[in-house]
Write a structure and sequence with these properties.
Length: 261
């Protein structure tokens, strides 16, 4: 189920990656008269990518690479562009080149880690995010800790997952990704009171309840025997997410209950 949820949030994660790619300045040796042009092409490339103008982004990244072929920023930008276009091999080559030139390039580590996550290469992604979260100044550190927690769950490291989610919430106490996954983790471990607590915190910090949170609410209220709240969750899941895998799981649970009677 974790892998399925990872795919559902892929679009959001890629968008976050793009919005974090704006730092310029390269580790390559660039003549002073060309540095200004290099920085301008990098900024333009990232701006075009935000607008999903991939041809425009490609043109500027290619111009940047013609000035500085080893530029970590330009290679990182091209890597994300290749990833968006479904060219996984080319994306990985560019990510590796960016990190070979600048091993402590946190944004490239984040983007490469997300790329590996979407390729279901969870151990490799875990190793990248372990590096990302060590950067205390990274502006997406809390979110990265939540992603590290997801990867730890996938790798059957529940205690590492729990500590990563809690660390993320110490930095950002309203982070929805950490709250809902910590709720799921406690539910899976049979600590239903804590699961309910984190679910309620999640619900206070999102505008629209997700299929995941509603299905968790149904299971919790079923256990607690609160029929009114359970019915409210069921109605919301049916109306808001009728084609979700969570609604299918709910209907399957009804069939299972009927067969056990």
């Amino acid at each position: 189920m974790l892998a399925q949820r990872a795919k559902l949030i892929l679009g959001t994660l890629l968008l976050l990656a793009l919005f974090g790619c704006e730092s310029v300045g390269t580790a390559s040796t660039v003549p002073p008269d060309k540095q200004k042009a290099l920085d301008a092409h990098l900024r333009a490339g990232f701006e075009y990518m935000k607008l999903d103008n991939r041809d425009g982004a490609r043109r500027h990244f290619e111009k940047a690479l013609s000035i500085a072929p080893e530029s970590p920023e330009a290679n990182n930008g091209m890597a994300v562009l290749f990833q968006l276009n479904g060219e996984a091999d080319l994306a990985e080559q560019r990510f590796k080149k960016a990190l070979q030139r600048k091993p402590d390039f946190t944004q490239a580590q984040y983007n490469y880690g997300m790329f590996l996550f979407t390729q279901s290469r969870f151990q490799d992604a875990y190793e990248q995010f372990e590096k990302v979260v060590k950067d205390l100044s990274y502006d997406r550190r809390a979110f990265s800790l939540a992603i590290l927690g997801q990867l730890a769950q996938k790798l059957d490291k529940p205690e590492k997952a729990r500590s990563s989610y809690e660390h993320a919430l110490n930095i950002d106490s309203t982070l929805p990704l950490a709250l809902i996954n910590l709720a799921e983790l406690h539910f899976d471990q049979g600590d239903y009171a804590k699961a309910n607590n984190y679910l309620k915190r999640f619900e206070r910090n999102v505008q629209k309840r997700t299929a995941q949170s509603l299905w968790l609410g149904i299971r919790l209220e079923r256990l607690f025997g609160n029929e009114d709240k359970k019915a409210s969750y069921i109605l919301a899941l049916k109306n808001l997410h009728p084609y979700s895998k969570e609604y299918l799981l709910y209907k399957q649970s009804l069939e299972s209950d009927a067969n056990n009677e």
